[in-house]
Amino acid sequence: MGNPTYYDDNFGEWKIESDEDVDFYHHVQRTNVSKQCERCGRTVSIQPHYAVCNSCADAIERGIDF
To answer: Is the pTM of this model over 0.85?
Structure first.
């Protein structure tokens, strides 16, 4: 059986490979806020200092127009 995988709006897919990964994942989930992504307009659960969700950040990195 492989390592568990989770998805969130901050970083996309998480592969949990150690206890430290689990602790960091839970920390991130606890400190997220619900806000509207500035690119797609979806209400997402992301870190307070982020303006866009992971899906939009990936699109921006691929050169898709903001």
So the answer is: no
